[in-house]
Amino acid sequence: MKFEDLLLETGGFGRFQILILAILCLPRINLPMHFLLHNFLAATPSHHCAIPHQEAFVNLTMEEVLLVSIPREPDGTFKSCEMFSQPQFHLLLNSSLQSENKSIIQRCQHGWVYDHSQLTSTISTQWDLVCEQRGLNQATATFFFIGVTMGAVVFGYLSDRFGRKTMLLLSLVCSVVFGMLSAASVSYSMLAITRTLTGVALSGVSLIVLPLGMEWVDIQHRTFTGILSSIFWSIGNMLLALAAYLVREWHWLLVAVTGPCLLSVVCLWWVPESARWLIAKGKVKQAHRHLLRCARMNRRKDFAVPPEALKRMATDKKPGGSYFYISLFRTPVLRKISLCTGVVWFGVSFSYYGMSLNLTGFGLNIYLSQFVFGVIEIPAKMVMYVLVNRVGRRQSQAWTLILTGLCIGANVVIPKSFTSLRSVVAIMGKGFSEAAFTTVFLYTSELYPTILRQNGMGYTSFVARLGGALAPLVFLLDEVWRSLPEVTYCSVAVCSGTVAFLLPETLNTCLPEGIEDIE
Where in the cell is it found (predicted)? Predict the structure, then answer.
C-alpha cells in the first residue's frame, strides 16, 4: 500500500487538509514581507550634498542656493555626490554655463540632505549609505540572503532528522526574536548581524511550509496546493506595499512585518506532523494517531488501517535512520536531478530578485510599483495551474525561465524613449519570473523522495539563496556598463531554463518514498 492509498482511505482531500493549508498560508504570506523588505528598508530617496554656512545666502531662494553650490547632471538634475568647493555665483546670471574646471568640484564634505516626502526614515538616510557607501546599502539584502542560504543547509537537514513541525515552530520563534532585534538596531553592524540571523530563521519557514502541506494531500490536489501557497506569497507582496505605505519609519516597519510570525506560532498548534515523514522514520504510532484524526475530520468513520500495516510501508528499515546532503549525489539518477535542480533554482532566484529588488522603470512611486508587482504575479500563477497539468512540469519550468530571460534582454535593446513598451515587457518578464518560481517549488518537492525531500529542498534553497544574495550586488555593475546587470540576469535565466529540459517529468506520478523509487 502506498501513502496515496492511505490518504484516499482517510477521505482524500477534505476539511482536514483545508485546515492545514489555511494555517500554513499565514507564514507563507509573511515571507515576502521580509524577503522583499529591502525595497523599503534600504530605499534611497533623492539627495544632495549638505551645504554649509547657508546663512551667507540669506537673499537667495533654496533653488538658487543649490544652483551655485551643486553641479548638475546632463539632464539638468542636481548631482547627488558632488558639490562645488566654492559657490559659483556666476551661474545665477546664466545657469546653463556649467564649469568645465573639475578642480572646483569635490565629493560631499558635510553629509547629505534627503527628500523625506515619500520616506520618513530608512537605513540609507540614518547611516548615510549613499555614494561611496552605496555598496553597504545593497549589501544589506545580501547579508539577509546569506543568512537564508545558511538556514537552508541547517533546516533542510534538521527537518528531515527531527520533523517538519518541530523545525517550523523553531524557525518562527527565532524569526520573531531576531526580527525584533533588527528593529532595535542602533548601528549598521548590529542591523547586518540581526538581519542575517533573521534570514537563517526565515529560511526554515520557506523550506518547510510547502512540503509539510504537500505531504498531506493526494496526487489530484498537489498542483492546487502548490499554486495556492504561491498565491499567498503574492498577497504578502501586496500587503508589504500597504505596510510600507502606512509605516514609513524603518524601525517600526520591521516590527510591523515581524509581528505576524507570532500569530503563525499560535496557529501551528493545530497542524500535525507529516504522517509521511513519521512512517518513513518508523514512528508508526504517531502517524496512525494523525491519520485517525484526519479520517474523523473528513467524516470517514470507516477508516480501519492498523498500525501494523503502516510498519510495512516504512521505507526506512531502521527507525530513526538518517540521511545527509551527500545522499543526494550517491546514486546516478538522484545525482543528475540534484545537479540540474541546483542550476534551475539559482537561475529562478537570481532573475526573480533581480527584478523584484528593482522597483524603477514603471513610472510609479515605489509603493504602487511593489503593489503592481504583487498583482502581476497572481494571473501568472493562475495560468501555471493550467499549464503544469496540461504540458507538464518540465516544459513549464524550462520555458518560463527562458521567457523571463528574453524579456529582460529585450529591455536592453528597446530604446529608453519607448517607455510604454518597456513597461509592458517588464511586466511580462515579472509574470514569467513568478511563474518559474511557482513551478520550481512544486516541481522540486515532487522530484525528491520523502526520506530526502527536506534535504533536497534545503540543498536547492541553499543554491537559490546564493542567487538571491548575488542579485542585489549585480546592480553595482551599472558603473561598468549601464546595461550589464540586465545582460547578466538575462544570460543566467536563459541558460538555467535550458538545463531544466534535462529533468524528469513528474506529472500524475506518485510522490517517491525511498531512493529506490527514484532510481
Answer: Apical cell membrane; Basolateral cell membrane
- Residue-wise DSSP of 198-237: HHHHHHHHHHHHHHHHHTTS-GGGHHHHHHHHHHHHHHHH
Residue 121: helix, strand or coil by DSSP? strand
pLDDT digits (tens, 9 = 90+) for 172-204: 999 999 999 999 999 999 999 999 999 999 999
pTM for the model stands at 0.81
- pLDDT of 369-381, one tens digit each? 889 888 888 888 8
The CA distance from 164 to 150, in Å, is 18
Q: 261 phi and psi, to 5 degrees? A: -60, -30
d(C-alpha 517, C-alpha 277), whole Å: 16
Which cell numbers in the block locate residue 258? 515581524
Those residues whose C-beta lies under 8 Å from the C-beta of residue 197, and which sit 6 or more positions away, are 147, 174, 178, 181
Q: What is the C-alpha R_g of the chain? A: 26
Alpha carbon 377 to chain centroid, angstroms: 13
Could you tell me the CATH superfamily of domain 325-518? MFS general substrate transporter like domains (1.20.1250.20)
Query: Which residue ranges make up each domain of the chain?
Result: 1-37+131-317, 47-114, 325-518
